[in-house]
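Continuing from the previous page of notes. For each protein in this section, the sequence appears first, followed by its structure tokens. Read the first protein now.
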Amino acid sequence: MKPNKTITFHNLKKNGSRYFCWISFILLISLFPAPNTYTRTVSKTASIILPKSIDLSPPPSYPINQKGDEAPQVSALGVIIKDIPSGATIYVKNEKTKFSPASTTKIITALVALDTFKLDDIMTVKSVLNEGKTMGLQRGEKLAFESLLYGTLVHSANDAAFAIAENYPGGIEKFVVAMNEKAQKLNLFDTHFANPAGFDDQNNYTTASDLAKLALVGLSNKTFSKIVGTRAITVSDVSYTYFHDLKNVNELLGKVPGVSGVKTGLTQEGGEILVSEINKNSESILIVILKSSDRFGETIKLIDWVFSNFVWKNIRDITPTIR
């Protein structure tokens, strides 16, 4: 026979105290339920931190060839034109072909030196260099690093570039190593340097694309940008015994409105080279020409072509709306 599970009055009386306790407990639970942690209401919201709104700058305008005229024919074998704010490439010609950088090498010479020295550091001229363009430094002459930097970038003085390298820890050899390490860090994989001045050497080469990248890094440095835009300056040694009149080799500075640098180059192997920053009509472009027979005239042609053909439009105005 199955056991009888029915609660009888006799059983309730027999176990009355035990059942009473359980019933009382159940009643208390029903009268005062525990809060439901999944649905309970938050009484205060002051402690909730909402993310701040993100203030995104509007995207830069993008150059569009509205007239459609083709770029003018130039003798330069390597050319690249870039819109600086957007990074857009406007025109290229053999941008990956390797050429001698000539004195545009001094761009990375300046950047390596700026990584190492302070502008008021005093440097001693350890040897006299008379090859190519110089500022007339004398052996034993002491100058501020800033003065040698002006000589290197404005006057394109080879003796200034070598004087900076000689004062680098480890001398010229270690300085050249640092130049190539800097190039690798900047992802200039088609570029190599053999000396701080840019003398022709089979191990001294770059491309229009790499040279544009290097110039843009230079222009992001306020000291570099100010110096390459200087037309002329006179510097002296610390004793005011020797004075050096420095004149920028870039003939377009002060001649063509908007041109504000960057660097020239000229060797037998490299031909005529010019890297130019142009700020015009609130727009900024960079032009690099390598191995040219008329670097200044051809740069002017390219400037005129860009600003007579291209208009800069907001990217939202040229991108079709997706619904």
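Done with the first. The second protein uses the same format. Note its length before scrolling.
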Amino acid sequence: MKILVINAGSSSLKYQLIDMETEAVLAKGLCERIGIDGHLKHTPLVEGKEVFNEDVAMPTHSEAIAAVIDKLTSPQYGVVNSMKEIDAVGHRVVHGGEKFASSVLITDDVMKAIEECIPFAPLHNPANITGIKACQAVMGKVPMVAVFDTAFHQTMPGKAYMYALPYQYYLSNGVRRYGFHGTSHRYVSSRCAELMGKPIEELKIVSCHMGNGSSLAAIDGGKCVDTSMGFTPLVGLPMGTRCGDLDAGVIQYLMNKYGYSIDEMLNILNKKSGVLGVSGVSSDFRDLDKAAAEGNERAQLALDMFHYWVAKVAGSYVAAMNGVDAIVYTAGVGENSSATRAAISKYFGYLGVKIDEEANKKRGEDIEISTPDSKVKVFVIPTNEELVIARDTRDIIA
């Protein structure tokens, strides 16, 4: 069985074709500048096939999907003989609200429900819907599955997901904590259990997804019981450009002081804040590390704030679960920055965490970075959201 995994953005579309017999990626690629001039980079991962990296006209997502299918089936660049070899498509969908606690086969009713969640994710769900409709237009009756970022967090209890606002806002408007990065947290926690050789039902895990967007999840017995992102991905940790947790009074004060509209204020909070806003240097942690090493105090402050917040939130999750067996670092920063992992792990001395400095230097692989006598195991696990989407798609259509 071969499954095409699609992650559609407003002007981009990432994809992987996965052979589920071996779970090997046959090809992957990225369509960019959809609706502008269009560019496709297609990388076959089988011997004897060439990489395609050129401009391609993509007025809409339908042309982008058609270009992807053309390259996947091309004698020169392709990895399958025809579209008939693609058995199903798995789509990443950011927000499923309270309607979806698991992945589902896409039907007209499911599409309607995803559209109803647009107010919760106005930048993401419309793009996801566009990607689904484009695939349907090009691929006809090939079965398609929606895999939701929010679904994994639907096991949170009310005490974790409710805000202390008038209850009517939850009943009438669905205002609550939803959480994001659920597919990533789900994958790395499951993989952590495998590496430990124990059933996930017996483990308490803190999963640290750290990238330009970052979130933590408390996973008790395989179920999420708390997570740091909320109604939107804006809150929780200070991120690349997002502010994280913030007193709402600050928003009112700045809007009144400078005459900002709510849209201008949200643009500042989402795109000009976080470690970029504090450092004035960059939202890229590699740039911050370099600047801090050269004596830039604001870059060091931004890093210190990020490390502190990860450790603080992780500590609160240890309390929420009444213990912890493992801490997992994942995503772009978590997988690649040994300095970030070391700095955060220093806060966990009270848990009996001890880090193997040599192991912590490695990257790009599943590895335990704690010492044998560490009371809590610490892992680096590269996330694989595409594989989770492909597995769910396989299971549902089977």
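What the second structure shows: The mean pLDDT is 95. The radius of gyration is 22 Å. We return to this in next week's lecture.
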